[in-house]
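Methods, example record. To illustrate the input and output format used throughout this study, we show the complete record for Choline/ethanolaminephosphotransferase. The sequence lines were provided to the predictor; the line carrying structure tokens was produced by it.
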Amino acid sequence: MGHYIPERRLPALHAYKYAGQDDSPVSKYVLGPWWNWLVEQFPLTVAPNTITLSGLGLVFINFLTLLVLDGTLEHGTAASLDPARRVLSLNASHDAWAPVSFFEHHGFPASMREHRFLDVPRIPPWIFMTWAVGLFMYQSLDAIDGKQARRTGMAGPLGEMFDHGCDAINTTLECLLCCAALNVGRSYWAIASLIATLSNFYLTTWEEYHTGILYLSAFSGPVEGILMICGIYAITALVPGGASFWGRGIFSLTGLESSDWAASLGLAKWNIKANEAFLTFGALGLCANIVASYGNVRHARRSRGQSAVTPLLGLLPLVLQQVTMTVWALGNDGQILRDGATFVAFCCAWGIAFAYSVGLLIVAHVTKAPFPYWNGATLYALLGAIDAWLPNSIVQSSPTNVRFAVYSSLALSVAIYLHFCHDVITTITKETGKPCFRVVPPEKQKPQNKGKGKKA
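The corresponding predicted structure is encoded as:
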């Protein structure tokens, strides 16, 4: 696989300077004072990347609790798809109108109608509250690592690489946690939510590559988006029924179903499930983000006298990966969705391959390298997708073989990404003289006008 930062690109590491623009009033007036106080509690001997990794560790703890309590998302799938459980939930809530789904079979493949569900206990309410606290603290630590870097003189390209890498992994894990909290199970909605969240993250990174600035709008994923998810976890923890709350219709939850005028208007057929309504809102947010990101890229490119159309080619790697993984997930008559252990592993493989793709883009950004249009992590998924849709699959010819193919993809993605992280961290720390998890006084760091990079 070789070096990801060739020697001729090393001088760019010394020239790199972070540039960001945060237009969020919540960041400025609400969370900003909290972040400023929090960073002052850390000694100057604590490395910024240690703070970043600690935040991701909290998310991993949340994810481990999901794996222990419902590691196959079986409860959400059963509650949404199994007619007996759905009627029981409906009667327990005393709802007059049945919840309505945008999709047939509530967003599950037809092949799952006869699925026998495991007797998985419901996740205790207090667990969801720990998820909310853990995610909020992740956001806080993620927000102050840059402040700590400036306090200690450790700011540099490695910090941005490390920060974006942890954020990319968190995006996938939070998506799975949110699917459990929203009670969507292993449905099409779970895949759609993963596509939306990963696409939002990629767009922000793509935008930064072409503009040189990390834009956070008045309503952004790292700030308001995370707070919204924290709110979902908290609501799930506090309302009766836990995650089943989100499977009720929006008119049932608001009490409008008891109104005569609502019944006269025939709103019962629009009593959309609350979780599907929320995820639809998220999809609309993705569309708005696409427009805003491209607007910033177009403005930056035109100000430099460059084509505003060429950057759109940089979205092809995202489209290819998202389409490939979706096609694979739906192949073999939905076998990946039917097998909970396979589905969770599949999403993790998807997320790690995505983190690798974003990592390549960040490396290109900090080293002023050409846009990375291709990476080998997508090739395995492409082969898996093709095999899954063959009339007679060559490899994935049985549920056991499907699971083997998915777990192999996960292992390969982890191996590629770990090699990438090791190579990039080693190269940057050696070139800049700034260790990853240790604070070095400025006088002991390599000056920007010295070192191997100058000779390249």
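Annotations derived from this record:
The longest strand covers residues 20-22.
The CA atoms of residues 170 and 444 lie 33 Å apart.
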